[in-house]
Specification:
Radius of gyration: 24 Å
Number of strands: 43
Shape: globular
Distance between the termini: 54 Å
Helix content: under 10%
Number of helices: 0
Largest sheet: 6 strands, antiparallel
Structural class: mainly beta
Length: 558
Amino acid sequence: MQQPEPEVEVDRAFRVPVVSGRWVWTANPSSGRVALIDAKTFAVTTALAGAGPTYLAALPARDGGSRGPRALVINSVSEDATLLSADDSGEVEPTLTLAVHQGANAWAVTPDGRFAIAWTDASAAEKPDPSEGFQDITVLDLETEPALSKRLSVGFRPARVFMADDNRYAYLVTDAGIDVVDLLSEDGPIVERELELSLDPANDTAKRDVSMTPDGKLAFVRREGASHVTVVDVEQGMFKDIALPGVVTDLDLSADASMAVAIIRQPTLAAEPSAAGAGQGGQAGQAGETGAVGGSEGGDAGVEMGGGGGLDSGVEGGGAAGEGGAGPGPMLGERSMAVLLPAAGILDNPDDFAAVEIDELFGSVELGAQGATALLYSNGVSSSHLTLLQLAAEQNFAHRTVDLKLPIFSAVSAPDGAHAIVLLRPPAGSQKPGAFAVVPIVKDLPAKIQGTRALTVPADSNLKDAAMVAIDDTRALVTVSDSASSTHVAYLVRMPELRVDSVELASAPLEQASGIVRDANQAFVAQQHPEGRITFIDLDSGEQHTLTGFELSTEVAQ
């Protein structure tokens, strides 16, 4: 069997432009201007920010959306941030400038838009010095009089920032653990505490993947090469390691935060005891090895439920194989496992989870906004199989596998969960440099395979070369580019028809600079141009509208 490579995590974070209702904000570091474009009328207004406006964040709508849009931009040269506000007509003015720390390149904003945290994402820095920890953050309070800018220090190299839906706490995932920032303390924003994620944090150096529930109460942690998932009770400051039957290669949290799905690419016969043991909350329970209690409609998936008794209980720890269940089956090789960890009660009952084994080799999971169907695939091996797993227990974890003919690199689900866009890697000798698939999820219909005129998958480990994907419930935009051949194409996808039309772009698209403006029924691609260029594409007709020169207020429509 082919020796699998590690799964590749694909970051889909968009920096610029950003969407706010029917409006699109875009920044030009060279001119010092920020432009606001009405995607319905294509009217453009600009305003001067600071020196080198680069990193944008749209702020939530105020007063039910009756007031104009607002945005924050980090000015990377002047090392400050500008608050830009617009009225209903789109006229923009800078209303506030606050200091931020040197090197800030990312934003996190509370749901109500009062607080914004400027921080430094080390993964976006080029060849960072080993001594640079990027530990400074700047908290902006936009509602105090006067507005507040406060610098704080957190753990070494923060990697993610979560804002709780109560608008009070921020959580920064760092090399050391999770730092809790109280935004509303009596002393103003402060770093309240740091949560350790193991009993031996000084030696806990494995790469981590952390997901948090929107209320900030629970965190799920996967470590590279580890056969357990750490569940953190943030309020109580405790954690438990949930031992699983194999190395966890990916972890995702459902949109409603009701469950985490852990993937084991090559499960073993039984869960190994966790080396880290239990956290401050007490001894961690171990996963009980049980018999299968059901099978999917495909007939080749066994469903195991953690069932008390611990590791030494063996098969007696659970019920016998149910009718239609396949039993354990082969433990290594072309067989993988999805483990469903319920958020409610997992800390009290750490062996209460469902483990679904399927006769396919997968190591990555994509849940999408709905979280009703898990998309299972692998980019660590050359596999063209995408497995669609129903996560509801009442559906007996039914699944089906789709052969997409070409090796899979990544998948993204539409918000409604009805379709997915999957980036593919054509084999050597193909006349098409790239390809993607449009996959129906809810209906059992054939996928649409579309070859592209430029790469959809990075040629090496530089993920910046991958295609850009923007997706809504019924439309998607896949943008590819090859500067060497001056090939720049956006593919407009209509669902459920699975119709794909190509749109030529006049210049190279900017990195991570495409999206969908639902309120205006438009897609857009911002492109390289010294005076600003952006192409809008009508999601129904495919009609293009390109604006060039709006940085100099010389709008040109093509």
